[in-house]
Design brief:
about 75% helix; membrane; Melatonin receptor type 1B-B-like; transducer; Rhopdopsin 7-helix transmembrane proteins; 14 helices; cell membrane; single chain; globular; mainly alpha; 2 strands
Length: about 350
C-alpha cells in the first residue's frame, strides 16, 4: 500500500524532470510523416534505434541460433536455452520493432481498420518480452547449478528435462499477455510511442503485476544466482584449473553481461510505465525508454562472441561454412602462407 501510494504521488506531481503533456486531441492524426515533424529529433532518434535493433538483432540472433544448431560442439542443454532466448529476442528485434517503425511512419490511421492486428502485436510483444527475461533467469539458474553444484547438474538439466524447461518461459509469456485479452488491461495504439502495445492507462494494477512479477522478481533471482557464482569462484579460484570449468565461467560472464544490459534497458521503461498511468509525462519519456528496452534484444550475440571462446569459435565455424568455396580456398591459402612464413 505504501509503495502504491508513493508511486501515485510521483505520477501526479509536477516533476521537474519531465515536462507535463497536454491531453490528447481526438482530432489529430497521431503518427505519420506530417505528425512526427512536430518532434522530428525525438522520433528520428527512435527510428534510428529501432532500425539498428532490426538489423543487428536479426543478424546476431540468427547467427546464434544457426551456429548452435549446426555445431555438434554446442549440442548441450545450456546452449539450447540460449537458442530459446535468441528465438524470443529475434521476434522482438525483427517482428515487433518492424511494426513499431510502421506505427511511427504510417501512423494511427494504419491501425484504425486493423484493430485485431494491433491487439496481436501488443499480445506478441508481451509474450516475447516475458519469455526473454524468463529465459535469462533460466540461464542464470543453469550456470549456478553447473558451477556451484555440478553433481546435481545432469539430474536437473538432462536433455529431456531441459526441453521441458525451455517450454516454461513461453508459457510464462503467454500468462503475462493473456490478462489484457480478458479485460484486465488492454492493447491499443500508444499515442506517445506511436506503436501498438499494452495500454498502460487502462489498468495500473496490471502495470504493477507486469513490472513486479515479470521484471523485478526475475531480476532479483538472476542477480542472486550470479552473486552466488561470484562468491563460489572467488572462494575456489585456486582450485578451478579444469579448462572446461573455465569455459563454463566464461559463458557465465557473457550471460551476466546480457542480464546487466537487460536490467538497465528495462528498468527505466518499467518505472515510466507505472508512473505514467495518467498519461501526463512528456512523450520523450516513453519513447526513449521503449526504444532502449527493445534494443536489449539485439546485443546478446556481441556478448557471446566477446566473453565465450566456445561460442566465438562456433560463430566462426558457421560463418566460414556458409561462405563461397572460392573465398574459403583463398582464405585457407593465405593462412597457410602466413604459417609457413612464421616457421
Amino acid at each position: 500500500m505504501f509503495l502504491h501510494h508513493l508511486i501515485h504521488k510521483i505520477s501526479n506531481s509536477n516533476s521537474n524532470i519531465f515536462n507535463l503533456n497536454e491531453s490528447f486531441d481526438p482530432t489529430i492524426d497521431y503518427g505519420g510523416i506530417d505528425y512526427i515533424q512536430n518532434d522530428l529529433v525525438l522520433y528520428i532518434a527512435f527510428l534510428a534505434l529501432t532500425f539498428f535493433g532490426i538489423i543487428f538483432g536479426f543478424l546476431g540472433n540468427m547467427l546464434t541460433i544457426l551456429a548452435i544448431i549446426f555445431n555438434k560442439e554446442l549440442n548441450a542443454p545450456n546452449y539450447w536455452i540460449i537458442v530459446n532466448l535468441s528465438i524470443a529476442d529475434l521476434h522482438i528485434s525483427s517482428l515487433i520493432n518492424s511494426f513499431n517503425a510502421i506505427g511511427v511512419l504510417a501512423g494511427e490511421d494504419f491501425f484504425l481498420n486493423r484493430k485485431p492486428l494491433c491487439t496481436i502485436i501488443g499480445f506478441l510483444c508481451l509474450i516475447f518480452c516475458g519469455s526473454s527475461l524468463l529465459n535469462i533467469a533460466l540461464l542464470a539458474l543453469n550456470r549456478y547449478i553447473k558451477i556451484c553444484h555440478d553433481h546435481l547438474y545432469s539430474k536437473i538439466f538432462s536433455k529431456k528435462k531441459t526441453m521441458f524447461l525451455c517450454i516454461l518461459p513461453w508459457l510464462g509469456g503467454i500468462a503475462l499477455g493473456t490478462p489484457n485479452l480478458s479485460g484486465w488491461g488492454g492493447y491499443d495504439y500508444d499515442k506517445k510511442v506511436l506503436s501498438c502495445m499494452t495500454d498502460r492507462t487502462q489498468s495500473q494494477e496490471f502495470g504493477f503485476f507486469y513490472i513486479f512479477c515479470y521484471v523485478l522478481t526475475p531480476c532479483i533471482c538472476i542477480f542472486v544466482c550470479y552473486l552466488k557464482i561470484f562468491f563460489f569462484v572467488s572462494k575456489y579460484s585456486g582450485k578451478i584449473g579444469c579448462n572446461s570449468h573455465k569455459k563454463q565461467i566464461q559463458l557465465a560472464k557473457s550471460l551476466f553481461a546480457s542480464f546487466i544490459t537487460y536490467f538497465f534497458c528495462w528498468m527505466p521503461f518499467g518505472f515510466i510505465y507505472i508512473i505514467d498511468h495518467s498519461d501526463m509525462l512528456h512523450p520523450a519519456a516513453m519513447v526513449i525508454t521503449t526504444a532502449f528496452a527493445h534494443i536489449n534484444s539485439s546485443v546478446n550475440a556481441f556478448y557471446y562472441a566477446y566473453f565465450s571462446s566456445t561460442l566465438r569459435r562456433g560463430f566462426y565455424k558457421f560463418i566460414v561454412s556458409v561462405l563461397p568455396y572460392n573465398f574459403n580456398l583463398v582464405n585457407s591459402s593465405k593462412n597457410s602462407h602466413t604459417s609457413h612464413a612464421r616457421n
